[in-house]
Amino acid sequence: MIEIDHTGDHGILEIRMTPPVTDADYTDTLIPAIDAAIAKGDRVRMLAVVEAGFSDFTLGAMLKDARTGLKHWRGFDRAALVTDNTAMRNAVGAFSVFLPCPVGKFAMSELEDARRWLRESLGTIQQEEIGDGILHLSLRGKLDGEAYANDLEDLNRYMAKHEKMRLLIDLRDFDGWQGLGALKDHFDLVRGHASRVDRAAIVGDAGWQDMAVGIGKRAFGLDARHFGGSEFDKAKEWLAA
């Protein structure tokens, strides 16, 4: 059985699955609820409380589950799985890297933690004008699609006042992306604004960052340099020169 327990703030759709789970539960309950939630907003945050095990899903339900995920591939902003079934948590964890949104896994005793995780932002992009025509972008934590949506609004406001910009991209506290969807949002943001960037400095110690600068130079013709985490002031001086 699939029940819709609660549809709350932040675009959260909360569902509960108890045995047995059939294809009719998907057709009659879950899919209409997801469609209705997406119709209210671009993306949905879903909390799935699963009291059923793999053996409690009929074959038709498993097929419906796969089709539902594919149909709404870009419709989920974040998903939380709450279950005491270790095998199910491990299986979801193994496949979560391929999913377009961040997926959190919680035990039944952590239900409130899961709800709080869905409400909170995972990471932030902070913008600050620091003089000499330099815009400081600080990426913190693990970023999801919401962080990029918020940043795009701020960046567009800044660009409405500036023909060109010099970017100081601070990655010292950056922990990566939550899911492939956030990574795509990152590339979309870079591609959409690269022509307006006069010069860019990336500050951080991760090995991939130097490679990213090289890709940016070749792909977008950026005048860009990578600086170590201790070279923040040196990066500012290079941008201001």
Automatic annotation (TrEMBL):
It comes from the Bacteria. InterPro entries: SpoIIAA-like, SpoIIAA-like_sf, STAS_dom_sf. This is STAS/SEC14 domain-containing protein. It comes from Roseovarius indicus.
